[in-house]
Design brief:
11 strands; 19% helix
Amino acid sequence: MPPTLRLKQALDYSRLNTGPSFRLPNPSTPKEKGWRSSQLFDVKIIESKTDADGTDLVKVHYVGFSSKFDQWVKASATVTRSSLMSNDPKDVFLFNVLSSVRDNLTVSRGIDSRVVIRIPITSPDVTTSLTDIAQKVSSVSSYVRHEFRFNDVHGPDILFGNDWWYRIVNKANDFAYVNRETVLFGYYERKMREEYTLNNDLKLVHRGFMFFLRFVKEKGNRSELCLLRCILNN
């Protein structure tokens, strides 16, 4: 007797959905005109002016390119490389510290708000300068690691400048800033490195000193931008 075939009954799942149905829109953002590149180009400033909105503009010529690529850009979009070209080790050191602070002022989710930055000290002049500044604007909290905490929130400005502690990350005005009451800095001697000679003799190599900067990072968005302005005015 031939086998009997059973047809599968189509299941209706429509009753499981008791709420309204909708389709999420697929947003598309308009493409920005201009060169999109994170690479820095050497430019020569030809002219400068201020537009009707009070924005400072400069006309730049890209060195090595045709003059047809000359364009007006915001003056704030230009970058000066003088800090990198300085022969003063203290200037290079501070540039590296500030660059690391900016790199850590992000608004990504899941990032720990506690930040520790470590920069090798390559010159004894930097250690002397840090100690001199620390004695004026901070109090010693540990003699072992040479830790210093600023006496007030404006103390780090003497070392890093006025606008070092905040960064507006994007056009949506998401921002991150350093809680300056939590700033702790200092330096310590790095652990000796063990090496052996060809005669199998142990040799200890001094690895220099390490600068560290610790702080707590805070984040905000456009609706909280007034908070950043209030902090700036205090």
